[in-house]
Write a structure and sequence with these properties.
The complex is a heterodimer of chains A (190) and B (195). Chain A has 190 residues and is mostly helical. Chain A is 75% helix and 0% strand. With 195 residues, chain B is mainly alpha-helical. Helices cover 82% and strands 0% of the residues of chain B. The chains are: A mainly alpha (190), B mainly alpha (195). The A-B interface holds A 30, 33-34, 37-38, 40-42, 44-49, 52, 57-59, 61-62, 66, 70-71, 73-74, 153, 156-157, 159-161, 164, 166 and B 59-60, 63-64, 66-67, 70-71, 73-82, 85, 91-92, 94-95, 99-100, 103-104, 106-107, 183, 186-187, 190-191, 193-194.
């Protein structure tokens, strides 16, 4: 049911004039993709510095809260651009993207990363700050940083997998993969 | 006298000599002479080297290494931006710039090494394709220039004395040059995918 609804929504988006313009433009899609990838340096670059500081692997002589606070703004700007360009990339090729298994797992990991970020921030705020100048953060914060690093490595890797067609709807007969990727027509044909 | 002058400006002279070498290579037509002789190497990289064979046979390994390359560039860019924006006085105003310059350097070097190693693997997989791409050579030259700039000019200058003793405009110029040159590397790398 959910797969049918998603497919209908994707087909509706694909029929939009602006969606077709984004793909048809000689440079528009490339520029969008380039901006999406290059903003990694600002968003994930900043995030990794914060996480690595919590693990005591970078700038242990600078207070952890200072690093987190000072990099928060560039990180949010980077993520905002990444999400905006990412949404436009999906809008440009909606059916192909929504029926990509990698895209679906990537979205799931993004959701987990978002939940982890909320918990991580809550723990940072709840901490009394006595460890702020310690080279390594307390265990709970370190675990949050490790999970964050792992999830974002997964997000980037899966983003890189999306253009490859190994498990595209037309390249597999495995019903589990077809269901997970939302290949409605192929599932109905089986 | 000459010896002490040389030791005092050794790095500057080295960079000037490197620039002169590049100009001579171009002016004497050496680049055109060398370029065709590199094709067999690139073909060998793709068809015969184990890097090329793995890259062309196993698409999933190639894509995963590409992702590690991207992540390395993200960390490299993050450390460069954090340091350079501090040098420009945009962020981390309450942290001494010396702390950031030394504190991020190890991470930068590891990220650069990872980016180069994974980049070699990626290039090997499409060796005879990238050889003909102008943007690939732009990236290689930009990478060489950026690495030399970082290792031989920016870092030695910024760690040689307290930043208060360095002309503020020199520091700003270093930071802007650094951002522009690394952006060129990353943008050229991205453009390889579209060519």
């Amino acid at each position: 049911m959910i797969n049918e609804l998603l497919l209908q929504f994707a087909q509706w988006m694909e029929a939009q004039e602006y969606s077709q313009m984004l793909v048809a433009g000689y440079y528009s899609y490339s520029w969008l993709e380039a901006t999406h990838v290059l903003t990694l340096m600002v968003s994930i670059g900043s995030l990794f510095i914060i996480d690595l500081r919590m693990l005591g692997l970078i700038m242990p002589d600078v207070s952890a809260s200072t690093i987190a606070a000072r990099l928060h703004k560039p990180m949010i700007i980077g993520f905002a651009i990444m999400f905006a360009t990412g949404a436009l990339l999906v809008y440009a090729k909606p059916v192909e993207t929504i029926q990509s298994l990698w895209f679906r797992i990537k979205m799931f990991l993004l959701l987990l990363a978002f939940i982890n970020a909320l918990i991580f921030n809550a723990r940072l705020k709840a901490a009394d700050g006595s460890w702020d100048m310690d080279p390594v953060a307390p265990k709970a914060i370190r675990i949050g940083a490790m999970i964050s690093l792992t999830l974002w490595c997964g997000v980037v890797t899966l983003g890189r997998y999306i253009p490859y067609d190994w498990v595209d709807c037309t390249n597999t007969n495995n019903t589990t993969i077809l269901w997970a990727a939302g290949c409605v027509e192929q599932l109905n044909a089986l | 006298m000459l010896g002490s002058l040389f030791s005092q400006y050794a790095r500057t002279l080295l960079v000037a000599a490197a620039l002169l070498f590049i100009v001579l290579v171009e002016a004497l037509g050496m680049r055109e002479a060398v370029y065709p002789s590199l094709l067999p190497f690139f073909t060998w990289m793709r068809e015969s080297s184990w890097l090329g064979v793995i890259g062309t046979t196993y698409g999933s390994i190639y894509a995963t290494v590409e992702a590690v390359h991207l992540l390395s560039m993200a960390v490299l860019g993050g450390t460069v931006l954090a340091t350079d924006l501090r040098l420009l006085g945009v962020i981390f105003k309450d942290v001494p710039s010396e702390t950031l310059v030394t504190g991020t350097y190890k991470c930068f070097k590891i990220a650069l090494l990872m980016a180069i190693l994974t980049g070699i693997f990626c290039a090997a997989g499409v060796g005879d394709k990238v050889y003909y791409m102008q943007v690939f050579w732009v990236k290689m030259l930009a990478l060489l220039a950026a690495s030399c700039f970082m290792l031989f000019i920016k870092q030695p200058l910024l760690t040689s004395r307290p930043h208060i003793e360095i002309n503020p405009w020199s520091i700003r110029l270093l930071a802007i040059t650094s951002i522009l040159i690394w952006f060129t590397v990353a943008a050229a790398g991205r453009w390889i995918g579209f060519s």
